[in-house]
């Protein structure tokens, strides 16, 4: 067994181990906590529950509307470039047009909408207004590229620097720097894959 083949197997085994550990999380994706209180999203009924109070929402490709427990309504409308309008149907006792819903002890409209966008398949997850900037595909690509740099540091050095010079050879330090940068890329890539 050649050294490169053995290193390739070790890297692939580590990648597989990290991916399988990330997949074993028992945390439910539709539950999280805010200020020590559980928040649950029920996508089939369009309901969010927080602190024993129910928030309802409507969504489609062009808008999201949230009805708070006190009957206040927040609506965001979207165009292809992002949020086009946002409006409150406010409490008549308020004199200001700016509403901080958290003063009522409720979840902020931004937190609710980001959560709805994160778990919604109807709204384009690649749009600018989506919470999810993390991409498992990008993480997988970064992980593979990092593993290649770890396995073939000399080739990576030639692709980055060696082609610029005639008859050049990388030093041992340059090879080690390539391996360390590959390891960092693998870690970042795995974090992107696991965190999504």
Write a structural description.
Strands 1-2-3-4-5-6-7 form a 7-stranded antiparallel sheet, with helices on one face. A hairpin with a 4-residue loop joins strand 2 (37-42) and strand 3 (47-50). By secondary structure, it is of the alpha+beta class. The chain has helices at 3-23, 109-119, 136-151, 153-160, 172-195; strands at residues 31-34, 37-42, 47-50, 53-59, 63-67, 73-79, 82-89. It is 41% helix and 21% strand. It contains 5 helices and 7 strands.
Key words describing this protein structure:
196 residues; alpha+beta; seven-stranded antiparallel β-sheet; 5 helices; 41% helix; 21% strand
Reconstruct the topology from this structure.
Layout: H1 3-23, E1 31-34, E2 37-42, E3 47-50, E4 53-59, E5 63-67, E6 73-79, E7 82-89, H2 109-119, H3 136-151, H4 153-160, H5 172-195
Antiparallel strand pairs: 1-2, 2-3, 3-4, 4-5, 5-6, 6-7
Helix pairs in contact: 1-3, 1-5, 3-4, 3-5, 4-5
């Amino acid at each position: 067994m050649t050294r490169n083949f053995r290193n390739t197997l070790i890297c692939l085994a580590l990648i597989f181990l990290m991916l399988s550990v990330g997949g074993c999380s028992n945390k439910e994706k539709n539950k999280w906590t805010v200020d020590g209180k559980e928040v649950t999203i029920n996508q089939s009924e369009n309901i969010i529950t927080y602190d024993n109070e129910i928030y309802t929402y409507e969504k489609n490709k062009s808008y999201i509307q949230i009805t708070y427990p006190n009957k206040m309504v927040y609506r965001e409308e979207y165009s292809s470039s992002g949020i086009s309008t946002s409006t409150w149907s406010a409490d008549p006792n308020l004199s200001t047009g700016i509403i901080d819903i958290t003063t009522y002890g409720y979840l902020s409209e931004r937190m609710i909408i980001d959560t709805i966008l994160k778990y919604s398949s109807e709204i384009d997850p690649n749009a600018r207004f989506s919470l999810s900037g993390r991409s498992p595909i990008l993480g997988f690509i970064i992980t593979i590229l990092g593993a290649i740099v770890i396995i073939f540091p000399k080739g990576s050095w030639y692709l980055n620097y060696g082609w610029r010079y005639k008859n050049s050879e990388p030093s041992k330090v340059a090879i080690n720097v390539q391996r360390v940068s590959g390891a960092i890329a693998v870690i970042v890539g795995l974090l992107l894959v696991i965190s999504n």
